[in-house]
Write a structure and sequence with these properties.
363 residues, 35% helix, alpha/beta, three-stranded antiparallel sheet, single chain, elongated, 12 helices
Length: 363
């Protein structure tokens, strides 16, 4: 049986998440490490970075090491009326690190639900995002937004795309000062958008703030129904509404979310509905999913046991090696970890010291 104590944080998370996703009927998805470079270039706005590692295939075709998983899954799927493709993955992607500004191999886990999705599917994916964080640490927060509401408010205030792009940047950074200044420069109502920035936190409180914003009533009703379902979950109080979660509105629509773990300063999970991406790729289906960035789990403190081994077995240099072998095997069969040594290592932490004489007698 695998001992969880020997696993790194990200390795332990992978095993836990596989079991979680299989419980909900998600099937493993394995893909190639590379795709046609042209495919990624056509959809570079969807990528975190447009810097991609490329190489020439033996036939001269330009290929790219995979910078994203979702695009590959969408490309290789098909639309089946009334059905949903539910898959999970654990894959490495190749991107420029924000810290080192160099290419890095990053481990991701996540899932995608593609097809005839409805409110239940949206809730299920949001729920699995929260449960994914809970598998790693109970001290987490999942922030949810709805782009349908943000779009409705922006259209009501000013339909100009130039204004909206600048306003979205202010909303995403929670910059009420610059947003108010932007509204004054464009001669539009500032109170509505500035109030919108402050609409974050406990879900019932935020829903009450949104009631009189106007527009986006279908989206607001969807948020209300999802909130009711979340109230029934044991970790529901750790799921909040925060409309600074925006993502790329050219590709995403509806519910979007991001997750945080205590001890890590940046988001470790991101996802949402991406029907617009599906449409851009000539797919008729809806889609929602998320990715968990496992490489960031390295920032969490590693679990450290009180002892390195249960038993330090000291044996004489002239001891019978069959007796040493038998003693070690007996201790391991008893469920203990053993380090067989001829002298005590300086930094080894052991629970119990056992000595084996050269006659093979344990004392």
């Amino acid at each position: 049986m695998l001992d969880a104590n020997i696993l790194k944080n990200e390795e332990r998370a992978v095993f836990a998440l596989r079991g979680l996703y299989r419980q909900y009927g998600y099937l493993p998805y394995k893909m190639s490490k590379f795709e046609d470079y042209e495919y990624y270039i056509r959809n570079k706005d969807f990528l975190v970075s447009d810097r991609i590692i490329t190489f020439n295939d033996t036939n001269g075709r330009l290929l790219a090491l995979k910078p994203d998983v979702t695009l590959s899954i969408v490309k290789n799927g098909e639309d089946i009326l009334g059905c949903k493709q539910k898959v999970y993955y654990n894959e490495n992607v190749y991107r420029v690190s924000e810290n080192t500004r160099q290419f890095k191999e990053l481990m991701q886990a996540g899932l995608e639900c593609i097809g005839d999705i409805d409110l239940y599917d949206i809730f299920e994916v949001v729920s699995l995002a929260a449960q994914s964080l809970a598998q790693i640490s109970e001290d987490f927060v999942l922030q949810i937004s709805h782009l349908g509401i943000l779009s409705a408010v922006l259209d009501r205030v000013c339909p100009d795309q130039g204004f909206q792009q600048k306003a979205i940047a202010c909303v995403e950074s929670k910059n009420a000062h610059d947003l108010a200044r932007l509204c004054r420069e464009w001669g539009v109502e500032e109170n509505l958008l500035v109030r919108f920035i402050s609409a974050y936190g406990q879900r019932d409180k935020v829903l009450a703030q949104l009631e009189d914003l106007g527009g986006g009533q279908d989206a607001l009703q969807e948020l209300k129904e999802i909130s009711v379902l979340l109230d029934r979950m044991p970790w529901g109080d750790r799921v909040i509404f925060d409309f600074s979660v925006v993502n790329n509105m050219s590709y995403y629509n509806g519910i979007v979310f991001r997750g945080f773990l205590s001890g890590i300063c940046e988001g470790v999970l991101a996802g949402g509905q991406y029907d617009k991406l599906m449409q851009k790729l000539d797919r008729r289906a809806g889609a929602i999913g998320f990715a968990l960035y496992l490489d960031l789990l390295e920032q969490l403190p590693a679990q450290r046991n009180e002892y390195d081994v249960d038993v330090l077995l000291l044996y004489d240099a002239n001891a019978d090696k069959q007796a040493v072998t038998a003693a070690v095997a007996e201790l391991i069969a008893d469920g203990k970890t053993v380090s067989a040594q001829k002298s005590v290592p300086a930094k080894l932490r052991y629970r119990q010291l056992v000595q084996l004489s050269k006659e093979g007698v344990v004392c």
